[in-house]
Amino acid sequence: MEFENKTYIITGATSGIGKCVATELAKSGARLLLLGRNLNSLNKLRDELNSPNNHDIAIFDSNKLDSIELAVAKFADKFKLNGFIHSAGVLSPMLLRDLNLDKMSELININLLTFFALAKTTLKHNRYVKNDTSIVAISSMAAFGAEPGLSLYGASKAALNSAVSSLAKEYAKKGVRINAVAPLYVNTPMYDDFVNNFISQEAHKSKLNEIMPLGLIEPSDVAKSVLFLLSSQSSKITAECIKISSGGGV
């Protein structure tokens, strides 16, 4: 199998896209370090995965980014890393008048700075597998469009795309590939919260076929692109962002 005995870290592993990626990688024989904020959810996920004893879990606090180094160091002492998937993210839609420093800091820490912290600790000398390491960040089509209330979220994802491109060129000669996947609306709890609490649910659903003619994106649709970018089938692809628009755009 493509991912048998390979080792990956996944942030945001307990729900949505991250959970789907974790499930598929575990089915393919990968070892996983699952990072999240809720210990019970992490334990539950590990028990659900193929070969649960192959996987480790760790709590990380986005406000204490050094906690990522501590978690990864213990895991990397046992296995060299083949990459990571940064799936953790918050949407937190806010109009300009509602922005405050605490909300802004939380969103930027999780969506962007966690990616940098994880890249830095993963790509330390002798911690990763040279010429067989792939990193994938979950971005968003919001990085390419304009939507009221998504200015900070879109900016964080645009910055993430820029980081992916720059770091990919920085590490290409070391055989590390770094890419992103940018979906439009994905059928996850975060999407449900956005539709139910920020915009008109009825108006959104009535326009959904117009916005996304190919239908609402499922986490499994995104996971397929992630696994492609992790696999040898994409061995010459780096510094790219795969858009999953379902025929539409923001």
Kindly list the characteristics that best describe this protein.
250 residues, alpha/beta
Report on the structure:
Helix content is 43%, strand content 15%. It is an alpha/beta fold. A seven-stranded parallel beta sheet has the order 3-2-1-4-5-6-7, with helices on both faces. The protein is globular. The mean pLDDT is 92.
Quick gist of this model?
With 250 residues, the protein is an alpha/beta fold.
pLDDT < 50 stretches: none
What best-fitting shape do the alpha-carbon axes yield? Answer: globular
Strand order of the largest sheet: 3-2-1-4-5-6-7
**SSE string, helices as H and strands as E:** EHEHEHEHEHEHHHE
Tally of helical runs: 8
List strands and helices in order, with pairings.
Layout: E1 7-11, H1 16-27, E2 31-36, H2 39-48, E3 56-59, H3 66-76, E4 83-86, H4 101-122, E5 133-138, H5 151-171, E6 176-183, H6 189-197, H7 201-211, H8 219-230, E7 241-244
Helix pairs in contact: 1-8, 3-4, 4-5
